[in-house]
Amino acid sequence: MFPREVHAAGGVIVRDGLIAVVHRPYREDWSLPKGKLDAGETFEVAALREIREETGYEVELGEELTEVRYEDHKGRPKLVRYWLMSIVSGDFTVNDEVDELRWLAPNDAIALLTYENDHDVVREAAERTIIV
């Protein structure tokens, strides 16, 4: 029997040519904000919720970026959909999942991000928003 595919959603939050990256202490990694869908939730709703939970920001969805597929740390297939996002309101707040958020230029974000998949998403976001 094949394991069920895990679905997640997140975003590349862009502000003044910079991208938000988050540190997750429980994984000891730097990543783009994202998380798994709740039962019955759409990818879009999950993306907005996860950004709010992990960063404290209310955001609006922009253009969808290329989806990412990989095997998670439990060996399950995982699909993550990302959107370009802009902040509507709010402020970063340390929480149970994220203890630090940094605003970085795309190349600096790529240098800090732990996962290669995130590097590709940032490169695409930078190309689409013409930030360097």
TrEMBL record:
Q: Where is the signal peptide?
A: none
- Gene3D superfamilies named in the record: Nucleoside Triphosphate Pyrophosphohydrolase
Q: Which residue ranges does the record assign to the Nudix hydrolase domain?
A: 4-126
Indicate whether Hydrolase appears among the record's keywords.
yes
User: Can you supply a Gene Ontology BP term from the record?
Assistant: ATP biosynthetic process
For molecular function, the Gene Ontology terms on record are: bis(5'-nucleosyl)-tetraphosphatase (asymmetrical) activity
Q: Which UniProt keywords apply?
A: Hydrolase
Note the PANTHER family from the entry: BIS(5'-NUCLEOSYL)-TETRAPHOSPHATASE [ASYMMETRICAL] (PTHR21340:SF0), DIADENOSINE 5,5-P1,P4-TETRAPHOSPHATE PYROPHOSPHOHYDROLASE MUTT (PTHR21340)
This chain's protein is named Unannotated protein
Q: What organism does this protein naturally occur in?
A: freshwater metagenome
UniProt lineage: unclassified sequences, metagenomes, ecological metagenomes
